[in-house]
Design brief:
alpha/beta, Rossmann fold, Hect, E3 ligase catalytic domain fold, five-stranded mixed sheet, three-stranded mixed sheet, 13 helices, 19 strands, globular
Length: 527
């Protein structure tokens, strides 16, 4: 084993960089590498966190580091201060402290080395995390007050500009504002004009159009969103609600709310009560007039969907199961007031997938389950073929293990030769890189072979356990009283079914609808 480095910016680092200080992570990396060299430690990997966040859930590199620490991969982790490891709540701090303690992994800073198995070092480490949490809360309160004050001055408070604008630094003062992007600004004006006034038809008369038709027009024109994606109803609706386009700034419209669900902290961003939202006249130019913006809000209020009962009644037995094979999105039920049978559609107007009657897809899915049950009952594929595949996968894993062991022995030999002066530094580095590449390839082969082995074992296990489940689903489905009960039955044996269709039934050649089923395999197998 060897050591690793963990790099993460603090809020103060970001503020200093904004004032012209050198890039923080580069400085820290140089300092930690120099300290490792002084201590004679071997660094094998660097975890570089590009986000500044308090919780482990928002820091992907920290999650990866903790997983490796739990697995005992590292002798020590090098970090500028212990506070860089955890600044979240007491739960996050406990997770970090426990991971280092149980794995007996050292924490090395330029000032001190912490041994989590040492009682005094453990107390010092935990006290450092506690003080960093207090400091973080004070910084957060100061930043929130600063953002509110910035909004009251008309400055743009977010790190991201809305569609139609770019974010620009204010001259001679702290803060940011918005500057229109001409091509995108025209699209914004079109959206508001179509929604409030309409557009001229062939007869010259203006006709208002709703959000769905606006989305269709935008997608058909080839215009894309900021991220290069197709337009959706939700994106256009949020744009129409955004007061930035009328020249205003706001803060607190969607605050982060933390809740504990099944033992996990879940962060949601619900719309805030208008009384708790800070709004002020912005420094940036408006793209639409206040009158047009107010008219859009009035139409939105009129067309806002009525709240349903707290416990919504499921009406689609295939809910969450059918995935569009063209765009990968979940397909939804579409009811018709005319009495026409419910349809199953891809809700994105830019997608070319052809819809079908919900009942048609439901029948096709049940037919596919019956064929699957018949295949499993007949023992397909033959047991001997499965056994051969299992033996082949096991042999691949063993061969990869042997190759890795051989390469590690060669790496040890290379260290011996460079120490003896047989290898020059250049030859040693070249040899090490070659061995590292070959070892990485062997480890990748082991991972892929291991996945295949787990998959084959899961399929074998599925054959033994899925037969009675499938039989139960097929026997009980017709007697299920509600779509919710039918949905639960289907999800007990299926993860999803991919739907493809490019021709309608009445077109030449008829419908070409297909369904690809993805069985729900045992929890030990993860794709």
């Amino acid at each position: 084993m060897s050591d690793c480095i963990y790099l993460r910016k603090s809020r103060m680092d970001e503020e200093l960089e904004a004032k012209g200080e050198a890039e923080t992570l580069a400085r820290h990396k140089a300092a930690l590498l120099a300290n490792a060299k002084r201590l004679g430690r071997n660094i094998s990997e660097i975890y570089s966190e590009v986000v500044s966040a308090d919780s482990i859930a928002a820091r992907p590199e920290m999650q990866r580091l903790l997983k490796d620490v739990d697995a005992g991969k590292w002798d020590a982790v090098h970090v500028m201060e212990v506070e860089r490891l955890a600044r979240g709540d007491s739960l996050d701090q406990g997770i970090v402290a426990r991971a280092f303690k149980y794995s007996e992994t050292l924490i090395i800073t330029p000032i001190k080395t912490y041994d989590p198995t040492n009682e005094f070092d453990e107390e010092y480490f935990e006290f450092g995390l506690f003080m960093s949490r207090r400091e973080y809360k004070a910084i957060t309160r100061r930043m929130q007050r600063g953002r509110v004050a910035s909004v009251m001055e008309g400055k743009w408070p977010s790190n991201k500009a809305p569609y139609g604008y770019s974010r620009v630094k204010l001259d001679g003062q702290k803060g940011w504002t918005l500057e229109p992007i001409p091509a995108e600004a025209d699209v914004v004006r079109d959206i508001f004009r179509w929604y409030t006034e309409g557009y001229a038809g062939p007869d010259g008369a203006h006709r208002r159009i709703g959000i769905s038709l606006i989305v269709r027009r935008l997608n058909e024109s080839g215009v894309t969103t900021q991220t290069g994606q197709d337009w959706t109803n939700a994106v256009v609706r949020d744009m129409l609600r955004n007061p930035a386009y009328a020249g205003f700034v706001r803060w607190g419209f969607r605050p982060s709310v933390k809740r504990v669900v099944d033992g996990q902290v879940v962060i949601t961003t619900p719309r805030a009560d208008p009384a708790n939202v800070t709004t002020a006249k912005g420094l940036h130019p408006a793209l639409v007039s206040k009158e047009i913006y107010d008219a859009a809000q009035e139409y939105l209020t009129r067309n806002e969907s009525r709240p349903g009962p707290k416990q919504m009644i499921m009406k689609n037995p295939l809910s969450g199961l059918i995935i569009c094979g063209n765009c990968g999105r979940a397909m939804v039920r579409r009811p018709y007031k005319s009495g026409y049978p419910d349809g199953l559609i891809c809700p994105y107007t830019s997608c070319s997938t052809v819809s079908s009657d919900l009942s048609t897809v439901e029948s096709a899915l049940l037919d596919a389950l019956r064929l699957w049950y018949a295949d499993l009952s007949a023992g397909n594929p033959p047991a001997s073929a499965r056994d051969d595949s299992l033996r082949l996968a096991e042999a691949r894993v063993k061969a990869a293990d042997d190759e890795i062991a051989k390469l590690r022995a060669q790496q040890t030999r290379a260290y011996d030769l460079v120490e003896q002066g047989v290898y020059t530094t250049e030859v040693f580095l070249s040899r090490s890189r070659d061995l590292a590449d070959r070892q990485a390839a062997a480890e990748l082969e082991k991972i892929e072979a291991g996945k295949e082995l787990v998959r084959l074992r899961a399929i074998r296990q599925t054959q033994n356990t899925q037969l009675p489940r499938l039989k139960h689903v097929l026997d009980a489905y017709s007697d299920a009283a509600t779509p919710e009960e039918k949905n639960a039955l289907l999800k007990s044996v299926l993860e999803k079914a991919v739907y493809k269709k490019s021709r309608r039934a009445r077109s030449a050649g008829g419908s070409d609808m297909t369904l690809d089923l993805y069985p729900r395999l045992p929890s030990t197998y993860h794709r």
